[in-house]
Write a structure and sequence with these properties.
This protein is α+β, with helices and mostly antiparallel strands and about 100 residues long. It has a single domain, classed as Carbamate kinase (3-Layer(aba) Sandwich). The chain contains three helices and two strands, in the order E-H-E-H-H. Helix 1 (about 30-45) links the parallel strand 1 (about 10-15) and strand 2. It is elongated, with a radius of gyration of 16 Å.
Amino acid sequence: MSSGPRYRRVLLKLSGEGLMGSREYGLDPDMVSMVAQEVKTVHAMGVQVCLVIGGGNIFRGVSAAAAGMGPASGGYMGMLATVRNSLAWPTARGRRGRTTPWQ
């Protein structure tokens, strides 16, 4: 039996909530760094890793201020939060000497 990785490619869905760590909202830099290190370890095994990064934690963090806001506006806020969370990723990877291709 082969001693290589079981999969050549994996898809990892990171929820915005999962990147909060122990915070009530936003991103926890330590959590982002820890996840980046884990992905680096898997990638070093020869596995291609695709990330899908969510952003719901941002909307929940401002939901009190958003009282009375229509559902479309809340949805747009969540989409923008997803973009914001994904921008944290190259920074965490760059600190580890890795580049992050965007696709």
